[in-house]
From TrEMBL:
List of residues binding ATP: 71, 386
The Protein kinase domain, residue ranges: 42-316
Sample GO molecular function, one term: ATP binding
Keywords on record: ATP-binding, Kinase, Nucleotide-binding, Serine/threonine-protein kinase, Transferase
Coiled coil: none
GO BP annotation list: cell surface receptor signaling pathway
Protein name per UniProt: Protein kinase domain-containing protein
Signal peptide limits: none
Length: 459
């Protein structure tokens, strides 16, 4: 994205008019003067942190004493850097992203004003010690933070103009009073047109978390965030810093993977010593390894990362006899604004609508099994993925799962325009056959590509 303009307001008028209108009209974004930011922060007294573009201070609104965070840009900061961060951050509205409240656009007092997040950041809870010992940090809490952070990144990557964060690390994952994560610091984030990669002449980021391909090529893609998130997962698994002294966590992890179960020796003892956790940690480690692949095309999308972490969390919760909001078996689809209870679909019905999974209903096949087309009793056209149990992770199969996933999973089998943007997934176990069979039943909006039936979907 190219930007033009000689000063900040002209720059925003040309490149971020909607942002400027929201500020000028006090519509969700408030305009602050230099004096306002000085008064709010009591003369910039309470420093919260410092980054490449400026310092962040704690402050309070004078009228209601609401706590705020004010990022004050360094003198000499290029207007483009300030405006880019403002434009990108203003596009994002997600519960796990720090909320932008306003800005100061005076030339020598550039600042952005954000909600204040009270519990520090993930780096603090992972690595800060009291009396030479870490604060307790249970696996379920780590998974909660990882999942919600992944969901925020997935949301950003799936926006009409995708947002690439570019600097994902524990220090940029803030934690609120309930230890809910909030992604922060959009100083080097980029706003893309759909299917566009972002090339930059200056490679900026944090050593240890930066995608090696970004370092080599200067091209930032959503898979760059995936790599960085893989490093964050490693830190959460091991409670070791990504880079420190003579060691590099990622290199040590990759070397341990080559030695098989040696990777287990890297797991944080607090979570590895708890009975039943090792296989779950193995699953997280495998996911992290996929995020860290050198070939970015084979790294998973963030939506898949979030989905797999949720599956692991559900196994943990089942073992502990607990449930989460995701276990209520209640979803919302694009067909209705009302909650819809997930139906129980019998094996007999699935056999009936696919004529016992005959080849003339087969529309696709792949790593996880075959995809069949059929119409349920309620008239709903559906794609049925019959999973091969031998191809699925143990943690993926332990119990029924209800979740959401991107329609691209079936896009090679069905015309993309005929699939819901967000579809619902039902996976249920049907005992009775020699081995347990698992099914994903996906609602679609029309007929599949008829050419696929001619080839059984496998060519």
């Amino acid at each position: 994205m190219d930007y033009q303009g000689s000063n900040v307001r002209e720059f925003l008028q040309i490149n971020g008019r909607v942002v400027l209108e929201r500020v000028d009209n006090n519509c969700s974004l408030q305009s602050f003067t230099q004096k306002d930011t000085e008064d709010i922060t009591n003369g910039y007294r309470s420093l919260l942190g410092e980054g490449g573009f400026g310092k962040v201070y704690k402050g309070r609104l004078l009228d209601n004493q609401r706590p705020l965070a004010v990022k004050r840009y360094k003198n000499g900061t290029k207007k483009e850097e300030f405006a880019k961060e403002l434009i990108v951050h203003s596009q994002i509205n997600h519960k796990n992203v720090v909320r932008l409240l306003g800005c100061c656009t005076e030339e020598n007092s550039l600042a952005i004003v954000m909600e204040f997040i009270c519990n520090g950041n993930l780096e603090n809870i992972l690595h800060c010690c009291n009396a030479n010992s870490h604060a307790p940090f249970a696996l379920d809490r780590r998974l909660d933070i990882a999942i919600e952070s992944a969901e925020a990144l997935s949301y950003m990557h799936s926006m009409y103009s995708p947002v690439l964060h570019g600097d994902i690390k524990p220090a940029n994952i803030l934690l609120d009073e309930n230890l809910r994560p909030k992604i922060s610091d959009f100083g080097i984030a980029r706003l893309l047109s759909a299917d566009e990669a972002q090339r930059t002449r200056t490679v900026i980021g944090c050593i240890g978390y930066m995608d090696p391909l970004f370092c080599q090529t200067g091209i930032l893609t959503p898979k760059s965030d995936v790599y960085s998130f893989g490093v964050v997962l490693l830190e959460m698994l091991t409670r070791k810093k990504a880079a420190g002294g003579d060691t590099n966590l990622t290199q040590s992890f990759i070397e341990a993977l080559r030695k098989g179960k040696k990777v287990r020796q890297m797991f944080d003892g607090e979570i590895a010593s708890e009975k039943g956790n090792i296989k779950l940690l193995d699953g997280i480690a495998k996911l992290a390894a996929e995020c860290l692949k050198m070939e970015d095309k084979i790294r998973p999308e963030m939506v898949e990362v979030a989905d797999r972490l949720r599956t692991i969390r559900k196994v943990l919760q089942k073992r502990k006899g607990r449930s989460s909001i995701d276990d209520r078996m209640e979803i919302t689809t694009n067909f209705s604004n009302d909650p819809l209870m997930v139906p129980t679909i019998s094996l007999a019905e699935l056999k009936q609508i696919t004529r016992n999974f005959r080849n003339d209903t087969l529309i696709g096949g792949g790593l996880y099994g075959n995809v069949f087309f059929g119409v349920l009793k309620d008239g709903q056209k559906s794609a049925i993925l019959k999973l091969d149990p031998n191809s699925i992770e143990e943690t993926f199969l332990e119990f029924p799962v209800v979740s959401r996933f991107k329609h691209e999973m079936l896009s090679s089998f069905l015309d993309t325009v005929l699939i819901e943007t967000i579809v619902f997934l039902l996976m249920s176990m049907h005992p009775g056959d020699p081995c347990t069979i698992f099914f994903m039943v996906t609602r679609v909006l029309g007929e599949p590509n008829q050419d696929l039936f001619c080839h059984g979907g496998n060519e």
